[in-house]
Amino acid sequence: MQLTSRLALMNWLTGQGLTGLPENELLRGFCERCRAEGLELSRGLVVIDTLHPIYEGRGFRWSDRPSNESDAFEYGSTAEGDAAKSWRRSVFFHMLEHGHDEMVIDLADAPSMDFSQIGELAEKGHRHYLAFVHRFGENGALGLMDCFYSCWTTRRPEGFGEAELEAMRDLVPVLGLAIKSAQQVDIARTLGRVYLGRDASEQVLRGRISRGVTERIDAVLWYSDLRGSTGISESIGPDEIIPFLNDYAQAVIDAIHDAGGDVLKLIGDGVLAMFTGEDMADARRAALRAEHLFRKNVAALNVRRAADGRPTTSAYIGLHVGEVFYGNIGSEDRLDFTVVGPTVNEVSRIASMSRSVDRELLASAEFYKGLDAAGRRYLVSTGRYALRGIGRAQDLYTLDPEVDASEPVTGSYERYLAN
Q1: How far apart are the C-alpha atoms of 120 and 127, rounded to whole Å?
Q2: pTM given for the model
Q3: From the CB of residue 41, how many other CB atoms can be counted at a distance below 10 Å?
Q4: pLDDT of residue 391
């Protein structure tokens, strides 16, 4: 590949990296442009670790022939099990262990080598295998994301010549920089979504990060906490406490997200969430849908935990509606993107009152009155109560017991929630 062609490809990678072209498209464009300039790549694979609560990293593939393989994939931990065995047999692991940055393998020698996947590549007609490990400096690493791994093959009978190797040595680092840039954006989005919540993350990443910048919004608020969690935590081993909390947090958060809500804050075993929209009656129904989904999630979870001899529980849920301030609150160097206001205090008091009236769901009078006529049929008053710290008494509502006791009523309620 001529120098002018290399520079053109570097410029293309730089421009597309700046505009945010997806990683699989970066790889495809790179490989196709290499082939157009006479560098006969037959396969490309790039891998980069990331920061994600589930995945250890991501990989991207390209092939010169149709394949059933996905052009993008994610992988879990390589620290144990079969994944660890496969990783330890990889060319990349060998290179890290021996301090190599580059490795060329004649695939005719594959039978004599104990590297994973090398033999399969040879069987598919690839002739030469070229691998790179580009290490990041201390200031360029993010957790496990400390290297850019890539491997390339050609079907040319003579394999990679020195000219092709020189071209790849020039070009692959630029590709790596573009893919690293894309991954850093993805990491920012993932961390924002996981730690701030979906809507709050979008707000922050759009630039709403100034202290005190808030907006007044109407929202349905959800506050829930686990039944008897203190007693359960004291009765189980320390190593069981976090899995216990995680199991039930998953049941709550999945239900809220599936119903279209946003989780704003985890407070111990408590969850603060909100449901918004142009039609607040729809937001109320979404909150009831989340409560119903949560009960289903918990029922399935408790069956699994009981089968393993582990303690089970449920949660108290309070629902309320009102105006809140939504935005950045805190100090100059520690902000939280959340909701504040009297409505937030009231919903936590309503959830706490659930213990006193022995109901797993309590909704405020404001929540009840804003439901459509069909929705109000499924709620009944539990009485009038003065909430701690709140100056006025109000009626609180719960689900009509018939919703659980009568199959026709249950079906009718579920149809109402699904609309």
Answers
A1: 12
A2: 0.81
A3: 23
A4: 66
